[in-house]
Amino acid sequence: MSARSTLRALPTLLRIGVSEAVAYRAEMFVWVLSTTMPLIMMALWTAVAREAPVGPYGSQDFVRYFLAAFVVRQLTGAWAAWMINYEVRQGTLAMRLLRPISPLWSYAAENIGAMPMRLFVVVPVAIFAVSTVGWKSVPETAWGWVFFLVSLFGAWLITFLVNVAIGTLSLYMESSTKLMDVWLALFFVCSGYLYPVDLFPPVWRTLIDWLPFRYQIGLPVELMTNAHGFGDALALLGRQWLWVGLLLVISLGLWNRGLKRFAAFGG
Amino acid sequence: MLRRYLRLLGVQLRASSLLAMQYRGDFVIEGIISLFWTATALAPLFVVYRERESIAGWSFGEALLVIGWFTLLQGILEGAINPSLTGVVEHIRKGTLDFVLLKPADAQFLVSTARFLPWRSINVLAGLGLFVYGFHLIGRAPSLVGVLASLVLLGTSVLLLYSLWILTVAAAFYVVKVDNLTYFFTSIFDAARWPASVFRGVLAFVFTFVIPLAVMTTFPAEAMLGRLPWTSLVWAVVGSLLFAFLSRRVWLHSIGHYTSASS
Amino acid sequence: MISVRDLRKHYQVHKRPPGLKAALRSVIHRTYTSVKAVDGISFEIKPGERVGFLGPNGAGKTTTLKVLSGLLHPSSGEVRVDGHVPRHREDAFLKKIMLVMGQKQQLLWDLPPAETFELNRAIYDVPRAQYKQTLDELVTLLELEELIGKPARQLSLGERMKCELAAALIHRPKVLFLDEPTIGLDVSMQATMRTFIKSYNERNGATLILTSHYMDDVAALCPRVIVIDKGLLSYDGGLDALVQRVRPEKRVVLRLNQAVAADSLAPLGKVVTHDNVTAVLQVPQDAVNATVSRALSSLPVQDLTVENAPLEEVMSELFAESKARREKVGA
């Protein structure tokens, strides 16, 4: 598989990904409904902030934060771990491997292909946010937009690569989805999905800054709601992409070794 | 009739325990994971109560009771209700639901009792542990009447959960790719870990009448604390029976749809 | 036993042309087309009969079986199975029938088949004594002894299919619907299944409807066949009579002592195949005798047999014929 033929095939893969997302729109709707946790947390935190602001966050800020968290979660979704696990167990991964293009590209295309459909949900939510809690709900500067989009892509890459890494583990062991459960539990606690990470006790803060989770949700949300100046934002982006690079190495390494095993033992 | 179904239940339970024994290695992993989840479920509680003494009229100890009920019900949900849900989804996808429908017994009964995961009872224990810790923080024991009322509510909550589950499964007849349904179900249920009075406006309405989460965890916690009005108890019983009736109707309707439209 | 009158089953199917644009358009506007899976068929089946349903893929065979077993509601028409209306799905009806699908399994995947049997015993309310007797019989006939204690997932396809069949027969159904029961099995396993199915029918007087792609199954099991094509019934009667109608010619198979030239074969009949020392001729029924005697006198014949055309060929010719007819009507 050459880089050029991959590149040539990519538009078609993406287009099919979009078509699939359209065909499965009812399922996507169910998924969107099941990711409404930020709205619950919004209710909770605005209840807490009713009497007095919590740290730097007032009621309005919480509304802004959690609407952004909802948007970011929608646009950074990946489910390759379950797909890989399923295909390994069903033996259909072998079919994918017959194709002259790495299955990872098709997984990626399928995941990204769902994004246009998601925009149908995300854009109205963003407009709602702007109309109720003002223009601070979206980046106010041009560099802000650029940084936000870069962080969004980075966040998706982290999610996707972790998915690939954990999904690939199903080539080594049976219960890789259990590992995904553990990852998800940590993700919920540490990513800023349930509360802004600033509200963590300071000791924990440092730890969280160095873990990948907050770069999956927290950072894009903060950039979307203009929480950082240029310098801080750049430094955080740097850390995010450091994780992207690291996970790229880990997941591709696991994948390639896993495939060798797969070829040796059969599916 | 009843005896026949009790016997059937016995046979199905036996098959489930055999299965569970086969995968007892999973016991340890599953146990650790569900305890881990319980622990992470507490994290937001700690973060929130770092800031405030009490939220929407609930102290930390009292809120722990709600989480205790949430954990306990989650154990029942994941041990006795969800596994069968996944089973139905699998049946529909593989087309083997036909075999269930061909059996001369109530299909809802058959699918509902198809699979149990006895290991998940760990969550029930974790829930009880949370009750003890919660009452320790509050500094008093629950009254006998309160405990009795909360036991009645345990019944209504399980009935409500089960009915919600049947409604979710019914959706699986209409939506093709349904893997997300379990996830949806648990994620909606997640909201039940907060005292209901936190929610206002639309959410309060939804969680009381549409998806009665408030009734499931907040009511029993209030009953334990001895501050649940008797009228609420009556409402919970009547409401859960109504919900059960409704879900039964929807189930029958979906089966009708399945047999008249599928290929 | 089974009576079907003017059965129709139409589906509304959502059609979407390929392509992104079409996909997006279909979000807003869906176009439905009506598929006539079964379009007015009637037949009667007497108790104890063995009937084969034949037809190309998508002809409506499985749909008909599912209607007969109460899984699908007919769009119109009247269906009776042993006095019951299948779609009412009364317990009494369900206890009399069973559907075996070669491509789907009811065995509990992670448990030994014995557990599935036990479960079915409870569900069908089979008395202990009868259950034990039936099970012993099934275990002997199908040679299940070794298998019923292993988890189903560890069985081979053939072994699993034998257990599937046993699980389906625990309640001794009076009517047995078999949808491709031998699909994917090797030849000897197919033969085992056939022998067993036939003996079940004979011992219990059960009525049997079978669909299969393997003509050998049909030839071995079903004296009567019903041909369904595009939802319509195109033949109902004896299998031999069907072959007669479609292919009145017989095949004369010659095995020769020494090679002969093609010219010497040509006057005898239509040459189907010919290589060195074997030749297959196709001749009209009434010319068989003449051909045989001429061959024996003019050729160095070692061995000679007269056969019907292979069923597979007969079928494909029948379906090609009806397709041509439809196209003519359409034009």
Sequence of strands across the biggest β-sheet of chain B: 1-2
Biggest contact? A-B, 34 and 36 residues
Helix content of chain B: over 70%
**Rg value of chain C:** 24 Å
| Fraction of helical residues of chain C | 25-40%
Strand order of the largest sheet of chain C: 5-6-7-3-8-9
Number of strands of chain B: 2
CATH topology of the largest domain in chain C: Rossmann fold
Backbone structural class of chain B:
mainly alpha
- Average pLDDT taken over every residue of chain B: 85
Query: In terms of per-residue confidence, which ranges of chain B show pLDDT below 50 for 5 or more consecutive residues?
Result: none
Q: Using only CA atoms, what is the Rg of chain B?
A: 19 Å
Query: How many domains make up the 3D coordinates of chain C?
Result: 2
Mean pLDDT of chain C: 86
Give a nutshell description of this structure.
The complex is a heterotrimer of chains A (267), B (263) and C (331). Chain A has 267 residues and is mainly α.
Q: Topology of this structure?
A:
The complex is a heterotrimer of chains A (267), B (263) and C (331).
Chain A: H1 3-23, H2 25-34, H3 37-48, H4 59-75, H5 80-90, H6 93-98, H7 103-113, H8 115-133, H9 142-168, H10 176-190, H11 202-210, H12 218-224, H13 230-265
Helix pairs in contact in A: 1-7, 3-4, 4-8, 4-12, 5-9, 9-10, 9-12, 9-13
Chain B: H1 2-22, H2 24-51, E1 54-55, E2 58-59, H3 60-94, H4 97-101, H5 107-112, H6 121-138, H7 144-172, H8 180-190, H9 201-210, H10 213-225, H11 230-261
Antiparallel strand pairs in B: 1-2
Chain C: E1 2-15, H1 20-28, E2 31-45, E3 50-54, H2 61-68, E4 76-81, H3 91-94, E5 97-101, H4 113-124, H5 128-142, H6 157-169, E6 175-179, H7 187-204, E7 207-211, H8 215-221, E8 224-229, E9 232-238, H9 239-246, E10 250-256, H10 262-265, E11 270-275, E12 278-283, H11 288-298, E13 301-307, H12 311-330
Parallel strand pairs in C: 3-7, 3-8, 5-6, 6-7
Antiparallel strand pairs in C: 1-2, 1-4, 8-9, 10-12, 10-13, 11-12
